[in-house]
Amino acid sequence: YIGHGESDGDFVNGRIGIWKENALAVIDELTTGPLIVIGSSMGGWIVHLVALRRSSRITGLLGIASAPDFTNELMWQKFDERQKSELTSQGWTII
Predict the structure, then answer these.
(1) What is the pLDDT of residues 23-55, one digit of tens each?
(2) Maximal CA-CA distance, the chain
């Protein structure tokens, strides 16, 4: 994923939606046929999102201590309009 380990980019610029797209790109460009997807923690959440987008190819899914992204429910929905405006004006997004 962008900004993780040896990957290019800065972690601060990453988002679950971007990392999901990273995973989908790897799947689409490097694999064929049925898949069993496995992820741990954040990767567990990402494999769930990937499975929704590539359901016809997923024959199995293993999420180990999956860490769902509740950013919208736990943070964004509780911010007032000033806080939301400040974050979006600085280029921050939830997804």
Answers:
(1) 999 999 999 999 999 999 889 999 999 999 999
(2) 48
